[in-house]
């Protein structure tokens, strides 16, 4: 993992100390199936089953730098998959923060949850939801007066309006669309949007019954 971290730092995508600590603490090898374990520290996306992948480390680092998680944040993690990014978010938000992880595919939901259980302290900072993410988590958003940040791991055709509505003023929304990553910051007067082209993602899926843990 040290070599991977050094390679990402050399590419300029591990700029913040908080993200460097998260990458060092949360071992990617704990979040991949045995079939691809030898490739866990390669800077490439890997298949994890059920038609899904664990994203390329460069891409994860790039998106998390844009999201800029802070201690105490409440973050909605859409498409939590293997749980690797979720666990790093849990590390970055600290004891006062919380990560709300949504995964649609039941088997992948269980896989990711089990992976994060290897980090008991981080596991306690995550709420898990196996459901459609299009509607976000309206009851949670209302209870916490809006999410500080929302991140999506899969490509969307259009950003669900529910995500925008559930983000607090000053909150950050990071998501893939077409072949680019977007960051939107919610302002009183509207949205501050920045586009970063040159990325490829699996498509966003919807439809499933809800299950929470």
UniProtKB/TrEMBL annotation:
<dbReference type="InterPro" id="IPR000682">
    <property type="entry name" value="PCMT"/>
</dbReference>
<keyword id="KW-0808">Transferase</keyword>
<keyword id="KW-0489">Methyltransferase</keyword>
<protein>
    <recommendedName>
        <fullName>Protein-L-isoaspartate O-methyltransferase</fullName>
        <ecNumber>2.1.1.77</ecNumber>
    </recommendedName>
</protein>
<dbReference type="GO" id="GO:0004719">
    <property type="term" value="F:protein-L-isoaspartate (D-aspartate) O-methyltransferase activity"/>
</dbReference>
<keyword id="KW-0949">S-adenosyl-L-methionine</keyword>
<dbReference type="Pfam" id="PF01135">
    <property type="entry name" value="PCMT"/>
</dbReference>
<keyword id="KW-0963">Cytoplasm</keyword>
<dbReference type="InterPro" id="IPR029063">
    <property type="entry name" value="SAM-dependent_MTases_sf"/>
</dbReference>
<dbReference type="GO" id="GO:0032259">
    <property type="term" value="P:methylation"/>
</dbReference>
<dbReference type="GO" id="GO:0005737">
    <property type="term" value="C:cytoplasm"/>
</dbReference>
<comment type="similarity">
    <text>Belongs to the methyltransferase superfamily. L-isoaspartyl/D-aspartyl protein methyltransferase family.</text>
</comment>
